[in-house]
Design a protein that fits this description.
Blueprint lengths: L2 H21 L3 H8 L7 H22 L6 H24 L2 H21 L10 H18 L3 H11 L3 H25 L5 H24 L5 H20 L1
Length: about 240
């Protein structure tokens, strides 16, 4: 890979971790807007994005472990543990063109949802809804490393306050991403080159997370989200057409 590509991966890692720290999710969505255009395959992009998330969410889940609502997370985790390996296996077998169309469609659908319906749709915090959220989130994680939206939709209703929401969703992402990474390794999707790219990108992740912490209270997170959603639409349309 060209030296410029390493710089690009560092910048993507920086932006992805920054968005994750400010909004509580979005690392995978941000990374998958850019990585597929520069890496040899879309599964490689999803793998690197998942490795990024493993590191940042492990740190945050340990730091905020006292605020995690473990009982709330259990139904989601149980369902995700079933759907993730199925999705990873499917991602390893599907052609690059079909994968690109699916990813483009997911980015467009998610961006439209967050732009227009995010505040209008509320889910009751029941175990059944937690299982549904975990199943959908696990499938999106295994396919594209973008498993955040279903978890966000559920936990914004289930968590009593912002710190519990942030801690619980980081804990959920931590375990599901480690599990998804293990499944990708079993399916032969993790190579030495990808580990090197991920290690380089983690430089950017650390810097992005640090900056997000420092300016968290000063930044208009809602405006940042709108910029990300519009970028998702553009990236998704480019992949489709």
């Amino acid at each position: 890979m060209e030296p410029l590509h390493y710089i690009f991966i560092i910048l993507v890692g920086f932006g992805a971790a920054f968005v994750q720290r400010v909004s509580g999710f979005g690392l995978g969505i941000f990374a998958m807007m850019f990585l597929p255009h520069f890496l040899p395959s879309h599964t490689a992009a999803a793998t690197i994005s998942c490795l990024f998330s493993c590191c940042t969410t492990t740190y945050n889940s340990i730091k905020y472990r006292k605020n995690v609502a473990y009982k709330t997370a259990i139904p989601m985790l149980a369902a995700a543990l079933i759907s993730i390996p199925v999705a990873v296996y499917f991602a390893a077998k599907v052609s690059a063109k079909i994968f690109e169309i699916l990813l483009g469609s997911v980015l467009v659908v998610l961006s439209v949802y967050f732009l227009f319906f995010n505040k209008k749709i509320k889910i009751r915090p029941t175990p059944v809804n937690g299982i549904i959220a975990g199943t959908l989130g696990g499938a999106l994680n295994g396919l594209f490393s973008t498993g955040g939206p279903p978890a966000v939709l559920y936990l914004t209703s289930a968590a009593p306050d912002n710190i519990t929401y942030f801690a619980t969703i980081q804990f959920y992402f931590c375990l599901t991403n480690i599990y998804a990474t293990a499944n990708r390794a079993i399916n032969g999707l993790i190579t030495a080159d990808l580990l090197l790219y991920a290690a380089v990108g983690l430089i950017g992740c650390l810097a992005g997370d640090l900056l997000g912490r420092k300016i968290f209270d000063k930044l208009d997170a809602q405006k940042l989200k709108y910029v990300i959603y519009i970028g998702m639409i553009i990236s998704g349309v480019l992949m489709l057409f």
